[in-house]
Design brief:
With about 260 residues, the chain is of the alpha+beta class. The chain has helices spanning about 10-25, 40-50, 60-65, 130-135, 165-180, 185-210, 220-230, 240-255; strands at about 55-60, 70, 75-90, 95-110, 115, 140, 150-155, 155-160. It folds into two domains: about 10-35 and about 120-260, no CATH class; about 40-115, no CATH class. Helices cover about 40% and strands about 15% of the residues. One of its GO terms (molecular function) is single-stranded DNA binding. Pfam families: ArdcN. This is N-terminal domain-containing protein.
């Protein structure tokens, strides 16, 4: 005996209409990808030399603004801060400005901070952990100094920034990159020339999936629209790309639901 199928199925016409809104309705990423300062390669290397873990870093004040507190007793990592020195030539009396660098203790890694963690939203009956398991994707620690990066995918592994503003959206976005095949060696070589299309496909798949599991609120939708429109610019996605979006959305959606009796 089998149970009647109650698992939500992807409504293709509705999803097509949803994608049209993703491309045309107003959107904005706001401060989502500008919350952290982008440090120079020189300072990234300097942080690494000090043993700073590769994770988001910020000043004491910035962590407070983000709702986190530096743990008692933690010591800041140093950065090289540019300064200008005025030097006057005794003979010509001309003043020269010379650039120098001053070592300043200023940054703390996210692992040096505490903050009240909001419980991750988990849609009823749909599980991120289950989806990862069924799709054979591993969640690995995030290793990047850039706090503005929400996450990344490499091969069959994804990593999510521990302070990402939209963790569920970002997780499904990175899962979608893997399912679209964007993270295979051959596609990674093509990424620079097709980045707009790849980012559209991953975000659009996440957008459709979030909507189907009841997790697409207006704030998330606005950020997604701004993200996609920013990457595509004036480019129109091809029909083949739209079909891939719906196919991947279906796979990700189904992977997150428990197997029903009729599936055994």
């Amino acid at each position: 005996m089998t149970l009647e199928q109650t698992r939500p199925q992807l409504d293709v016409p509705k999803s097509r209409e949803l994608l049209e809104g993703l491309l045309t309705l107003p959107g904005s990423t706001g401060e989502s990808y500008r919350r952290f300062h982008n440090y120079s390669p020189r300072n990234i290397g300097f942080l690494a030399l000090q043993g700073c873990p590769p994770e988001p870093v910020a000043t004491f004040k910035k962590w407070q603004e983000l709702g986190r507190q530096v743990q008692r007793g933690e010591k800041a990592y140093s950065i090289l801060r540019p300064i200008q020195i005025r030097i006057e030539d005794a003979k010509t009396e001309q003043v020269k400005l010379i650039k120098r660098f001053k070592v300043v203790r200023a940054l703390f890694a996210v692992s040096q901070t505490d903050g009240e963690e909001l419980p991750a939203y988990e849609p009823p009956e749909w599980s991120t952990e289950r989806a990862l398991g069924k799709l054979g994707i591993s969640l690995v620690p995030f290793q990047n100094f850039d706090g503005n990066i929400g996450g990344y995918a490499r091969g069959k592994e994804i990593a999510i920034n521990p302070v990402a503003p939209f963790p569920l959206r970002t997780t499904i976005h990175e899962i979608s990159h893997v399912e679209h095949g964007h993270t295979t060696p051959e596609h990674l070589q093509l990424y620079a020339g097709h980045r707009g299309t790849y980012e559209f496909e991953a975000e659009a798949s996440a957008y459709v999936t979030l909507n189907e599991i009841g997790a697409l609120d207006e704030q998330t939708a606005t950020v997604s629209r701004g993200y996609v429109q920013g990457w595509l610019g004036e480019q129109e996605p091809a029909e083949e790309s739209l079909r891939r979006v719906l196919n991947v959305s279906t796979r990700v959606l189904e992977a997150g639901y428990a197997a029903e009796e009729g599936d055994q």
